[in-house]
Write a structure and sequence with these properties.
single chain; 369 residues; alpha/beta; Rossmann fold; 2 domains; 6-stranded parallel sheet; 12 strands; globular; binds uridine-5'-diphosphate
């Protein structure tokens, strides 16, 4: 494996500008990937919607901005949903520029979860790599991910083994985890703070179970996140005694980590196969133990008894009992776990090694005409 710097094109999700927050967890992932790869000495070109911003210490990175209409997210699609691309879509706009830039680059890394770039992979000469950001949400996406995997599984990477297990892969999955600029998260020692929950306010995130556990303990639950589904937010509020939920709104990372860091525990209650669980690691980085359902990424990230507790999915009684035991967790172990496994340095190193392995294989592969 050579150590010479690579020229990499990084393509943002076609939902919002990089730095706007619209792209959810993918944005945080790509920003820390860019930071980590720059620190490793690579040359980067970022392709993203107009209005995008790069992290502060990335002045040498080329930013190619594209105008277009946001792509609808696959997050709430039905299993049989078709691929839809709006008129003047950002998705084809991003990929027109990315494929051109990819002609002279070593590789193109896709951060979005979209059918078009996956389908293009075996049909173009640019070397496309996909960091798959969700599990199985719709059959047309599952099919195209599995088709790329059957052609060359080295072109795909996943955040966790649990996420990758949603797909039929010809061999072991490339699992790269995720990474965070840990200098943005301050370790806080307090142990008697409130309970917290963070994430998009949407049914797949299972806020109702966290609220029920807080209510069972007669405590308040601090909730941070974008109210994506208003009706669902109101429903959750109606299910627990008035005042149980303290809606804190969507906060910047700086504010979020400050408030979250005071918490005694973060509760994480996904109802879907969460690909990773950024908020779990963000809490750990502040020294906050996490009590979560043993489902999806969080079930793989939390080390029971060391950085939090895992309970059977959808078991609110077990969740409540585990919250009573959270004081036995040593908060400094939570921070150490994040430093060891989820810094932008270790993440970018894993991504680099995935891409280099895929590029070595590339000499034997010819694109289909
Ligand atoms: N988040 C934030 N401010 C908030 C609540 C959440 O910036 O007030 C961010 C959080 O840092 C995380 C993202 O929203 O990076 C949610 O990502 P996650 O992987 O937990 O879920 P997703 O929304 O991508 O399914």
């Amino acid at each position: 494996m050579t150590d010479s710097p690579l020229h990499l094109v990084i393509v943002n999700t076609p939902i919002g500008a990089l730095g706007s927050g619209e792209g959810g967890g993918v944005e945080l992932t790509l920003r820390s990937l860019v930071q980590g790869l720059v620190r490793r000495g690579h040359r980067l070109t970022v392709v993203a919607a107009k209005g995008s911003t790069l992290p502060a210490d990335c002045s040498g990175v080329e930013l190619l901005e594209v105008e277009g209409v946001n792509q609808p997210s696959w997050q709430h699609a039905a299993d049989h949903a078709p691929v839809e691309i709006p008129r003047n879509g950002l998705l084809p706009g991003l990929w027109e520029i990315a494929l051109e830039a990819g002609q002279t680059a070593d590789a193109v890394i896709n951060g979005g979860y979209d059918w078009l770039p996956l389908w293009l992979t075996q049909r173009v000469s640019a070397r496309l790599f996909h960091l798959v950001s969700m599990g199985d949400v719709a059959s047309v996406m599952r099919d195209v991910i599995e088709a790329v995997a059957a052609w060359d599984s080295r072109r795909l990477a996943f955040h966790t083994h649990r996420q990758a297990a949603d797909f039929r892969l010809p061999g072991p999955a490339n699992v790269v985890g995720n990474g965070f600029d840990l200098s943005n998260y301050t370790f806080q020692r307090p142990t008697n703070g409130p309970l917290g929950w963070a994430g998009r306010i949407a049914p797949e995130k299972g806020l109702e179970d966290a609220a029920a556990a807080a209510a069972a303990l007669g405590e308040q639950l601090l909730v941070w996140g974008f109210r994506e589904d208003e009706a669902y937010a109101r429903l959750v509020e109606s299910l627990v005694p008035a005042g149980t939920i303290d809606w804190r709104g969507f906060r910047s990372t700086k504010e979020l980590q400050q408030e979250l860091g005071c918490c005694r525990a973060l509760i994480n209650t996904p109802k879907w196969n969460e690909a990773y669980g950024n908020v779990v690691v963000e809490a750990l980085a502040c020294g906050v133990p996490v009590v979560a359902y043993d489902r999806g990424g969080p079930g793989e990230l939390i080390s029971a008894g060391r950085t939090g507790w895992l309970v059977p999915p959808d078991d609110v009684f077990a969740l409540t009992e585990a919250l009573r035991r959270v004081s036995s967790i040593e908060r400094s172990l939570c921070r150490s776990w994040a430093e060891e496994h989820a810094s932008c340095e270790v993440f970018s190193q894993r991504v680099e090694s995935w891409v280099r392995t895929g590029l070595m294989a590339d000499v034997s592969i010819n694109p289909r005409s």
